[in-house]
Amino acid sequence: MPNPAASGLPNPQRYDVTTAGVVQDLVTGRTWQRPANTTGLFWPAANTICRELSLAGHQDWRVPSLLELVSLVDFTRT
User: Fold this and answer.
1) Sign (positive/negative) of CA torsion 34, 56, 52, 65?
2) Coil, helix or strand for 67?
3) By C-alpha distance, which of 52, 60, 73, 9 is closest to 31?
4) pLDDT tens column, 52-66
5) For 71, which DSSP code?
């Protein structure tokens, strides 16, 4: 799991934002859409949006697992 650089833990967070509309996590290899949807969706609606999304040359988007979501959180920030 990526860790905040200031924490001194292994696997410091590193991200690539050079592709428009996406962030690539250089530690996990995961890619996600940016900016994030902050409207709050229930799983069925989010799943439909992901299945229909074509972004950055990819059409295989999906809703992340709980563990994947936790790996995105920087616990050193509020």
Assistant:
1) negative
2) helix
3) 60
4) 999 999 999 999 998
5) T
